[in-house]
Design goal:
With 263 residues, this protein is of the alpha/beta class. It is 36% helix and 26% strand. Helix 2 (54-69) packs across helix 8.
Length: 263
């Protein structure tokens, strides 16, 4: 390490050593995955990252059912993981409504998730009785991006509208809408369960989003991961209106496409 006025920086030798350590780490991980894939025993930990509300409404109940058939599988479910966690294999399965593009990952397109425009009953009444009044809306973002293209949809439909709340937390978006905080685009499989919310069908529907299940291609033959991935895929297919049939997981590995068990 070299000392500078701003602190310590790695030398070129250190960079070379670090690169070699990372290569060895990947090789060891690959060996472990090969060993896992050769065993017939289905047990161990499967780590899942998943966006809300899919995590609590679909994945968690699915795991409870799966446990009856595979009690030796333990699932760690978190909703704060990013794709880079999957790249480092800190998690095994990622489920969310954004498609990753890294070549090391194998991606399954699960279902097109329908969204609706919602408001609390009092705000819906205000919306329906007001003309040319700026409406407030709640926007869900990820890493500062309008991942579902809902902001553009809002501005095209209501040019004078304004954003009341920007958040990367679905529960915050949902709670603000439920408590008369304005209009919001919410997934129908969740929001339709709440009689306190009104779906405003008199306007055009907001853009749908696609749910994707992603794994690292080196995990594609690990039995416990394949079993959990297929169970989640079936659960989402049953509870979310499907507009596109689930496909096998594929990825661009060095030896061609990588697949999980077909559904």
């Amino acid at each position: 390490m070299d000392k500078t006025p701003d602190g310590y920086i790695r030398t070129s030798v250190a960079e070379d050593i670090l690169s070699e350590i990372e290569r060895l780490e990947r090789s060891i991980e690959a060996i472990v995955q090969i060993a896992d894939s050769r065993t017939r025993k289905v047990d161990g930990v499967v780590r899942i990252s998943c966006a809300e509300p899919i995590a609590s409404r679909i994945v968690a109940p699915c795991i409870a059912v799966l446990h009856k058939k595979h009690p030796a599988i333990t699932v760690h479910l978190r909703n704060d993981a990013r794709v880079h966690d999957l790249m480092r294999r800190e998690i095994d399965i990622d489920v969310r409504m954004v498609r990753p593009d890294q070549k090391e990952l194998a991606v399954r397109r699960l279902s097109s998730v329908a969204f609706g425009l919602y408001a609390s009953s009092s705000y819906a009444e205000f919306f329906r009785s007001s003309k040319d009044v700026p409406f407030a809306y709640v926007l869900l973002e990820q890493d500062g991006r309008d991942i579902f293209r809902h902001a553009r949809w809002f501005s095209d439909l209501f040019p004078s509208s304004r954003i009341l709340l920007r958040t990367n937390n679905y529960e915050a978006q949902f709670s603000c809408t439920l408590n008369h905080g304005g209009l919001s685009c919410l997934p129908r499989f969740h929001a339709d369960l709440y009689p306190e919310l009104v779906r405003l069908d008199e306007v055009s529907s907001p853009p749908d989003a696609v749910a994707y299940l992603t794994i690292h291609r080196n995990n594609s033959d690990v039995p416990r991961i394949r079993i959990v991935a297929d169970a989640i895929s079936r659960a989402i297919g049953e509870l979310v209106p499907i507009k596109h049939a689930p496909a096998s997981i594929t990825g661009d590995g060095p030896d061609g496409p990588v697949k999980l068990l077909p559904l």
